[in-house]
Amino acid sequence: MFDAASLALFITATLALLLAPGPAVLYIVARSLEQGRMAGLVSTLGVGFGSLVHVIFAALGLSALLTQSVIAFSVVKYLGAAYLIYMGLRTLTHKAKASTVQPLKTLSYSDIFTQGIIVNILNPKTALFFLAFLPQFVNPAKGSVILQIVILGMIFVLMAIMSDSMYALIAGTARQLLSGNILVARIQKYLAGTIYIALGITTAFSGGHRSK
Question: What are the backbone angles phi and psi of residue 99, rounded to the nearest 5°?
Answer without folding.
Answer: -80, 150
